[in-house]
Structures are given as structure tokens and as C-alpha cells.
Design goal:
The chain is an alpha+beta fold. The protein has one helix at 16-26, and strands spanning 33-39, 43-49. It has a two-stranded antiparallel sheet with strand order 1-2.
């Protein structure tokens, strides 16, 4: 199983905190790995195996 969350905001809006909280909320859907991708002029990726708090 897996869970996804997406947030779109105006340019310059920092949504990483909201995405992180959302990942914690859907973590029970799949606990093998987690990741966050944000975009501000380029993609920024943070991902890995384990729970959201471990990544």
C-alpha cells in the first residue's frame, strides 16, 4: 500500500512543512519508505527507506 500527498502554492510559498505533516498523516498506508519533492526553480528531493521521522 502507499499514500500520496500534494500541495500547490503560489511562487515563494514554503510548503515543505505542510507536506511533512501530511506524510506523517498517511504514513500508515506504507511504512517501507518515504520522500518529499519540492520545486523552486529546480526539484529538491529527500527520500529514503524507513519511516518519515527517520528520513
Amino acid at each position: 500500500m502507499c499514500g500520496f500527498i500534494g500541495i500547490f502554492g503560489p511562487d515563494g510559498t514554503d510548503v515543505a512543512g505542510e507536506v511533512y505533516e501530511g506524510l506523517l498523516a498517511v504514513q500508515h498506508r506504507g511504512q517501507d519508505a518515504a520522500g518529499i519533492i519540492t520545486f523552486t526553480d529546480s526539484f529538491h528531493v529527500k527520500k529514503g527507506l524507513g519511516l518519515v521521522l527517520e528520513i
